[in-house]
Amino acid sequence: MTEFSSSLLRLLSERGYIHQVTDAGALDALAGKQVVPGYAGFDATASSLHVGHLVQIMLLRRLQQAGHKPIVVMGGGTTKVGDPSGKDESRKMLTNEAIEENIAAIRPVFMRMLDFGDGPTDAVMVNNDEWLSTLGYIELLRDVGAHFTINRMLTFDSVKLRLDREQPLTFLEFNYMILQAYDFRTLAQTYGCRLQMGGSDQWGNIVNGIELGRRMDAAELFGVTTPLLTTASGAKMGKTAAGAVWLNEDLLPHYDFWQYWRNCDDADVGRFLRLFTDVSLEEIAKLEALEGAAINDAKIRLANEVTAMVRGPEAAQAAEATARETFAGGGLGADLPTLDLPAGGLSVMAALTELGFTKSNGEAKRKVGEGAVKLDDAAITDPGATITLDAGATAKLSLGKKKHAILKG
């Protein structure tokens, strides 16, 4: 591990955030002598961010913890274009109203995880639509486009991979890297921003911004990227069989969010505690050293810490209580996902699929055949069974040991 003198890079390095750094020595020296404003950008393509975005939010949190200034850039402008990085097809175009609604829905997560205000290390949130939508096309071509060559742009993974797969890349998306570079330059001029942070797939875009700032303003800018995050099983971080692990409650109940962390692989506990919680490194070392059934205590600590930070302490307490009641007491925890049954009942296969426990009726049928599906802890053996309940009655539907829901009549 590289030895750094600044508290910022030491913190990022010790907790496992650093994949690449541009001119690490110069950034280390700068962070050791002054407040460094740094930013991470988030496009508003949905009404919630997901766990895949969480490491970038944590980077901003670590930046503030080390005495520097986080800048949250909401991509109101770049969302209209679509980042081709890691994508196989063009992004669905959203209306201005939909983008604004998404930004409003995303904002509360940042308000919980960062301290906002007017102080030198207080976080600020800006919308790149403010400057991108007023940028004239001729002005962009003349003042910014002159610093980019098609030859170099074609070498970036975000472009190259799409072309190698013979999948269409629109001229609109091709311009995304120019707009992101212009973001960095604008933030440097307006907020004194010196650092851009992002995932490893953003390296090319970040380097473009650094180069643009140097060419247009002789500015010394820096970039930090995080490793591609996968679970111990090799799965992409934040994805489950039921879909994305959303940060907002309206898209994913508190209990399901808590369970995602509680169910992590034993091998991931220490890494996730370092990346996604404020638990001290000394305590993490003790927790990840636990063996056998005791490792579950570390997983519960992880689930509680992340849920409390992202959703609030009450959400974490309620989710843990629900888990305790469901697993230990055999009861119906109040925070379990719920499904209202129609008057005529619902087939067990439809119930499993509607809850997101299975992807299809075919998978649900297989699970019933394996004896993995239970209603109030009694196995369901007939895949064609219909579940009916009296008005006001409830029952617990379970798939395996970890997926539970409340059915309501």
UniProtKB/TrEMBL annotation:
Residue ranges of coiled coil: none
Binding site for ATP: K239
Keyword Disulfide bond: no
Cellular component aspect of the GO annotation: cytosol
EC numbers for this chain: 6.1.1.1
Pfam families: tRNA-synt_1b
Record's catalysed reaction(s): tRNA(Tyr) + L-tyrosine + ATP = L-tyrosyl-tRNA(Tyr) + AMP + diphosphate + H(+)
Compartment(s) where it occurs, according to its Swiss-Prot or TrEMBL record: Cytoplasm
Span of the annotated motif 'HIGH' region: 44-53
Domain of life: Bacteria
Residue numbers binding L-tyrosine: Y39, Y176, Q180
Keyword Cytoplasm attached: yes
Residue window of motif 'KMSKS' region: 236-240
SUPFAM superfamilies in the cross-refs: Alpha-L RNA-binding motif, Nucleotidylyl transferase
GO process annotations (BP): tyrosyl-tRNA aminoacylation
This protein's UniProt keywords: Aminoacyl-tRNA synthetase, ATP-binding, Cytoplasm, Ligase, Nucleotide-binding, Protein biosynthesis, RNA-binding
GO molecular function, one term: RNA binding
UniProt subunit comment: Homodimer.
Function: Catalyzes the attachment of tyrosine to tRNA(Tyr) in a two-step reaction: tyrosine is first activated by ATP to form Tyr-AMP and then transferred to the acceptor end of tRNA(Tyr).
Recorded family membership: Belongs to the class-I aminoacyl-tRNA synthetase family. TyrS type 1 subfamily.
Name of the featured protein: Tyrosine--tRNA ligase
Originating species: Croceicoccus pelagius
